[in-house]
């Protein structure tokens, strides 16, 4: 009798693991273009498994706004995705409060929610929901969204196992969506990578169009194949470097890739030098679709001649560890490369597990190295025995081992092997009447999810192993691939911005502000630009976000202040006095020495009227730490400069806060101005801001005046000051005076 519940529990666990494996395989195997479709299919499977009527995914942007991005509904249940967009996760809803604090929401009976949840109960009842569970999706302590299930046709109660299942599925979706976001960011660096390809000294990179004609031939290709760039450009690939007997096959293979998507795998090839010599190269290939829809083939070739010579040297040495008989580091490297090549061909995963024994040093210290060596031999046999036939276990020194696990379709496939390794490593071994026992800490990374070279894979697994030790030992720990990639990308961007600042590549542009009723010039806003040597003129959105919170943000801010005051002095000397507003970052305005630094700069330019300088502070920056910011703003105002609250209406102002801040001007955010002609809500917001400005005796200026129609509407509302493309685009300093005298008199917004 007792066996029935146990059998049922075992069956349910088996079915749940099958579901997790199925979902993981679907997500891992699909490309990013199919990801949304695959996620909704997985939601279907999930809903059927837990007996729910609707399953869904919400993604969160700007920390407070949730969008229903993915959904599955049972027959007879109305879809809600098209309605559940731009939802504000306000603190007044307990549901939103729990999600924002990374807590699970479990409502088994919506109708029975307490009175404090009355508003929430009404909203959920309107959607026909009788029961729900929602689990937050978190990456690196950052809330990305939440995954949930609803009961619509009848109320249901789900247990903790369902919560756990939702969390696991949410983590898989989170990883996939974050990888998709990373790919988008990587595409933005294509121009920079092209420069690297052109100049990298040891890797030959070529680019061919759909007719296989050369359009990219870097310096390393000149060295490897003997053709100069001028000789190669425009010539077909097969006429340059392909041996005559292989040309027909190469043309057919490239044509099949272009027309049918039959990818050419990376491999060792025999190609031809200009002088007729045959070359052994390792060639990788990427097919790219240009912005105009044309196919481009990129080949990355590495000369294998030095490697072949090194292989001959290595063949003279032993490939196995003398003590344990396991493969050594040399053979491990060879096996890992083979596994990686196989994974590319078969589209499977390879797990690299770095294993370090816990407590082995004490055995050596207490009983000597001879007994310690015998212990390692016995332990190596146990660990090798629990691996599969296709796996490799190597000893790379001391009590450190590496296991390579191939033929994996998902992370779940390698978990049983890792658990067996932990059990084997902790098995007691009897030697000379002693019962000896250790444990193991294992770090794991997976290729190609961790798409780096083999040496880097080992280093990443090593890093994860140390995390396993710090977490308590006798366990395995996965390497955080996404965090590593983001850190590398950010560090590279910060280095490039620093170099650009040192090389004087940054400039200021100036966007005029006018009285739209009288066409009187009211001043300009200073806007930073990066005159990048390869990418051209870059807007702040291309480089400022990465500096947020970094010391470089303060350095850029100080540069903008100095440059703007110097320009005001230069204009003053030529008889053109221009009031100027400057954006100040949150980190700048919260710095305790900001006011003193501003005073020092103002004293450096005594002929610049201080009242002509205005500091623009983002609404969110000013209110994030109002207690510390307010005294600094008061000190700045005491110097004679004016203060404006930028992007007003997008933050979380209250009337009390607005009253406390020593500001002179409100800037209406361009998002409201841009859509006010079609969106009555935006129009109402602008009317409210204007009323607030009048109530607090503040100036007000509208950003984003894109057309004359926007200007006329603002004037009807009583807003006279504006800036935007409908008035003038940001321009270099030497053009502003001419615009004021020549173009502004002819401008008509009324």
UniProtKB/TrEMBL annotation:
This is EAL domain-containing protein. One of its GO terms (molecular function) is catalytic activity. SMART domains: EAL (SM00052), GAF (SM00065), GGDEF (SM00267), PAS (SM00091). Residues 490-744 form the EAL domain. Residues 348-481 form the GGDEF domain. Its cofactor is Mg(2+). GO terms for biological process: regulation of DNA-templated transcription. Gene3D superfamilies: 3.30.450.40, 3.30.70.270, EAL domain (3.20.20.450), PAS domain (3.30.450.20). Transmembrane segments: none annotated. It comes from the Bacteria.
